Amino acid sequence: MDVIAAIRENRFVVVGRVGMDLYPPPGVATEDAENFTADMGGSSANIAAGIVKLGGQASLVTRVSDDAVGRFCLNKLARYGVDTTYVTPVGGEARNSLALYESRVEGHQSVIYRNGAADFEMTTADVEAIDFSKFSALITAGTVFAAEPSRTATFRAFELAQAAGLPIIFDVDYRPYSWPSPQVAEEVLSKAGAMSDVIVGNDDEFGFMAGAKDKGLAKARDLAATSASIVVYKMGEHGAVTFHNGGELRTGIYPVNALKPTGAGDSFMAGFLTALAGGHDLEASVLRGSACAAIVVAKPGCAPAMPKPAELEDFLATHPGPTEAA
């Protein structure tokens, strides 16, 4: 399978959650806020929105609550241009996830509501309804594996995507609060990683999969040597190491005055993939992903902060440039 050639077709099916984000004005603590801005959230939905804003095509596969918040999420997906053919409402007590977070770095607080999350109700039947021939690659983030029936459904989506010749792109995205135990998470995320063609995660996430943070880089290197085509090992302010075809590529970051710490990973993924899709080489694609992450952390919101092509090009043209690779 030529993974990069498939990505260049720029037609992605994205599996995972969409939710509602609420955030007060910049610099205001949640407990002191008198008003909030509402927009779309959820890692998979953010990635899909970022891809579309940068000129790609994305279709989301998930469940939403059959209520006003679920309809809010559907409306936002449509507004961002994300296809909702495979977004299915679910009734009962399931509810869309809700994230309250602040646009400040010092003292930053995030409060996540994930009890009885609607996206965890995604079933095998939901993914078996997907026409994988319409897409060139599958993307997911690790949270989909944290509970059943979503876990089994997503592994079934992996099998169907592989049978259709689609590469699997996996953002590890480990969120401890979603999982029943670290042991279950380590086992399940490692299984997902072994099935994936492109893996993106930070040093904590690879370290978690390896059993200790100081073993994370070796874990990323091993995945690239044994099963994955591309592995991106992110190190925050220290940049990233990308493994591909036996080589190791080190890149820096674009420093900015950050307004918040959230949204960077989702924006990186969207920028990285659409850069590859646009014909950029691997180094330029990682750097363009890093630029997208920098743009998002410097603005309020996640999906609304993600750049369109003109904004990205302006940022790259006016920024002094990335830091030296670590």
Helices, by number, come to 11
What portion of the residues fall into strands of 2 or more residues? Answer: 15-25%
**Tally of domains:** 1
Name given to the CATH homologous superfamily: Ribokinase
Share of helix among residues? 25-40%
Tell me what you see in this structure:
- With 326 residues, the chain is α/β, with parallel strands linked by helices.
- It has one domain: Ribokinase (UDP-N-acetylmuramoyl-L-alanine:D-glutamate ligase), CATH 3.40.1190.20.
- The protein is built from 11 helices and 13 strands.
- A 9-stranded mixed β-sheet has the order 5-4-1-8-9-10-11-12-13, with helices on both faces. A 4-stranded mixed β-sheet has the order 3-2-6-7.
- Helix 2 crosses helix 9 and helix 9 runs antiparallel to helix 10.
- The protein is globular and about 50 Å long.
